Amino acid sequence: MTTPQQPRAQWLGRWGFVLAATGSAVGLGNIWKFPYITGEHGGGAFVLVYLACILAVGVPVMMTEIAFGRRGRGSPIDAVRRVVTESGRSPLWSLLGWMAMLAGFMILSFYVVVAGWSFSYLWKMVTGQLAGSNVDDMVAIFAANNANPFNLGFWSTLVTLLTMLIVGKGVQAGIERSVSWMMPGMVIMLLILIGYGMFSGGFGEAWRFLFSFNAGSLTSDGMLAALGHAFFTLSLASGAILTYGSYLPSRTSIARTTFSVAVADTLVALMAGLAIFPIIFANGLNPGEGPGLLFMSLPLAFQAMPLGTLFGILFFVMLSMAALTSSISMVEATVSWLVDNKGISRRTAAWGTGIVLWLISTLAMLSFNLGADWTLAGRHFFDWLDYLTSRWMMPLGGLGMALLAGFVLKSESFREELGLAPHWHALWLFMVRYVSPLGILVIFVDALGIARVEFGMHWPWLLLLLALVTLAGEILSPRLRRTLAG
Ligand code: PHE
């Protein structure tokens, strides 16, 4: 086991971590992915399950990850190992750190392709290539943009280069400053688009689509997607938040920080939904259109509104920036692990990682053109990366983290680290011990087809199950009583 020679870097300002973590959380997941998967899974019920997952699983797991990072002061692998050894538990738990690091890397491999779309649409906006196009043209433009591997590869390579350039320069430089103007800018752009949507004729339908709860429309696959997206959008179980937490000064409140990041992230996603769906409905596009949803719809609005070209350029600048502040956080875990353990410089670590990343992301990029037929069980490579990370690795990683913090570690470590008032600590412990794990397990049981869980009908039974499991857990684990007493 090696210990870093130098004291670990910390964020610059008081807001440093909040800004960087918000920058990581708010990204293509909110603006590109949330609307399109909401469309694919039928709207309202999906949104409700997603919100429940953020609250019941995302927030407690995020607090846990930040605490792991800060207490272990290292990359996910090192931090988890240090924290478990401190409690006298098996270092094998650091496998959770390995899985998180791998997930972050896999996500980045397809994320740069989507970020590349954003950059290429910025270019199209600037050069006026989208002017005068109607709905059908937009669909064709998206397809044509993907069809040429050199075009698509150029943009994803550009994103890879930019990401590695920023990461190579270090954690503090630039991240905090760029997020502090980009976030408000993004919110203003979304408000303008929502304002436009209110007059486009599709707003009422969009509102109903997003917020009216129709339990029947949700499949088990949709529930697993909602759970996975809660992890994805908060950058959990992928090394990002944990590694950023390792740079957090010891006096900052983890709970308050987590809360502000989660609220900002959720608001941006809902706003993105409210910006995109009115345009979808007003133009007769299909909400289940898939990954191209954003790129086929928003340019239509930019053409129709006053100052549209200007707003369109600003929007894609901000979307590209939001993508970059997320992508840098995905490799931070790998790079900081290499720096701490292999004795190489940050620059070398970043560029070395970048080369491997470039190879894998190129394969992902080819899924849209040359490799469109290279499928396995109906999914191409790009889909596999997304599917494996969001539906499996992140929920399972989060489950592991929650159980580890809830049952395995000495209760003092996290009591100190989180520094919560006793009743809040008890609530956090209740969440990581029972609510989050049970939520994750129930969704898995449903998705694997072991048993059908219809939330609309069975929620009283689920509450009863929660109560029983809690009771059993507390009888079996006398530690909680000591925690509550202390
Ligand atoms: N949360 C980011 C987004 O919504 C994506 C991300 C996933 C970032 C995992 C870091 C780690 O775009």
UniProtKB/TrEMBL annotation:
List GO terms (cellular component aspect): membrane
Topological type in the membrane: Multi-pass membrane protein
State the organism named in the record.
Billgrantia kenyensis
Q: What is this protein called?
A: Transporter
Entries under CDD domains matching the protein: SLC6sbd_Tyt1-Like (cd10336)
| Pfam annotation, one family | SNF
Location in or out of the cell: Membrane
Sorted keywords for this record are: Membrane, Symport, Transmembrane, Transmembrane helix, Transport
